[in-house]
Amino acid sequence: MCQPAYSFCQQIFEDILSLTDNVNYYDIRKKCDGSLCYDFSNFENFLSKSSVKKALGVPSSLGYVSCSDLVFRSMLNDWMRNLEVEIPALLEDKIQLLVYAGEYDLICNWLGNSRWVHAISWSDQKDFISASNVSFIVDGKEAGILKNHGPLTFIKVHNAGHMVPTYQPRAALKMLELWATGKLLQPNKC
């Protein structure tokens, strides 16, 4: 069941890419460069250093790859599984959920992510939908648009593609710091 769904969606995606003159699907402002649309050699070289492996507790015998074919193939059938069905129970248990997307990402685009977050069926869905979008401010500047109600937060990160920390490291760090400490909330309305 998952394989036909994957093939159908993959064809739609490939049709879009065929019309866009080699657009980088992780950042629509750029052209695709290489098999993964990026040069990951700096990441790979850094994470392959023995000192980095040691600091991270990674066995020296393991090598780092940006995208593992084995992992890709092993998870391929999971791509089309609806994992959203597990999320309402987490929200009802007040487990904090942060969903974020870079505004220039195509493959995991902000609009699609926003739509599924708004469609999550849970007891506070209406309150989340009616919550206002507010500026996510980092270093005195708007770094994105934030919407929050209860345990659910969505952020569209400005000037970022798929790998938000690569494009907006300060905003990504601030977002995760605030979320991890329970402070990534909308200001109270008076």
Task: Summarize the SSE layout with pairings.
Elements: H1 2-18, E1 23-24, E2 27-31, H2 41-48, H3 50-56, H4 69-75, H5 87-92, E3 97-102, H6 110-119, H7 125-130, E4 134-138, E5 141-149, E6 152-157, H8 164-167, H9 169-180
Parallel strand pairs: 3-6
Antiparallel strand pairs: 1-2, 4-5, 5-6
If you had to describe this structure to a student in words, what would you say it looks like?
The chain is an alpha+beta fold. It is 41% helix and 17% strand. The strands form two sheets. Strands 3-6-5-4 form a four-stranded mixed beta sheet. β4 and β5 form a beta hairpin. The mean pLDDT is 90.
What's the gist of this structure?
This protein is α+β, with helices and mostly antiparallel strands and 190 residues long. It is 41% helix and 17% strand.
Primary descriptors:
single chain; 4-stranded mixed beta sheet; two-stranded antiparallel ribbon; alpha+beta; 9 helices; 190 residues; 6 strands
Q: Taking Cα atoms only, what radius of gyration do you get, to the nearest Å?
A: 19 Å
The counted number of beta strands is 6
N-end to C-end Cα span? 50 Å
Low confidence ranges? none
Share of helical residues: 40-55%
Q: Helix-strand pattern, N to C?
A: HEEHHHHEHHEEEHH
Question: What is the mean pLDDT?
Answer: 90
